[in-house]
Amino acid sequence: MTETIARPPRYIAYVPLTDLTPAPRNPKRHELELLIDAIRMHGLVEVPVADERTQFVLHGHGRREALIEMQNRGMALPGGVVLDEDGGWLVPVLRGWSSKSDAEAEALAIKLNRLPGEGGWDPREFATVLEDLATNAAELFDSLAIPADEMDKLFSQVDPETLPGGLREDEPPTLHLPDDGDRGDGLSPDDDGRAAHTTCPACGHLFNTGR
Predict the structure, then answer these.
(1) Which of 85, 93, 86 is closest to 67 using CA atoms?
(2) DSSP at 88
């Protein structure tokens, strides 16, 4: 049974996009085009967080910028965002948290950006998921935009014998280009400027990495 809380300490409220005020200092950089593409594809899933004391955005500056740019470009209303009576965009925001000081607000903002990635990835599980995406959902795999060197580093940590369906278990993971020729350098005459590929140790699938 779900219990209803009359005054929840945290709640989602829809506010005008134009009312989302960025923090005065935000050292986090953003890959704006990747954020726009993710929101276009999946809708707004991870909502911005507001600080009740300052009324500034605590977390979600990149998503705020991406939504503003999407609106300016005349892109379709993304999932999770609704229109107000005047056609403006209303954005879901997590409300209810209040900082005790500017220092605490900035410290938490850094934690919210850094901590999710600190645990890293389990190489075997990650490689298996990537292989499934590349094989069964190429558009979703491409949208990950994982750089070639990161893919190569990941697969270098994977023991092919621990992965199901390994077809090339006697070969180490390699980074190469398709249509390798016989010149001894692993490149074909027409390879200049072509995107690097990484071989999955599970099945030999060639991943077209990065953008």
Answers:
(1) 93
(2) -
144: left (phi over 0), alpha (psi -120 to 50) or beta: alpha
Residues 6+ apart with CB under 8 A from 189: 181, 183
What average pLDDT does the segment 16-23 reach? 97
What pTM value is reported for the model? 0.75
Q: Which domains does the chain have, with CATH numbers?
A: 11-118 (3.90.1530), 123-208 (no CATH)
Count of C-beta atoms within a 10 Å radius of residue 181: 13
Cβ contact 194:186 at 8 Å: no
Q: Which residues contact 5 (CB under 8 A, 6 or more apart)?
A: none
Instruction: Tell me what pLDDT residue 139 has.
Output: 95
Distance, in Å, from the CA atom of 156 to the CA atom of 194, rounded to the nearest integer, reads 22
8 Å CB contact between 51 and 119: no
Partners of residue 13 on adjacent β-strands = 93
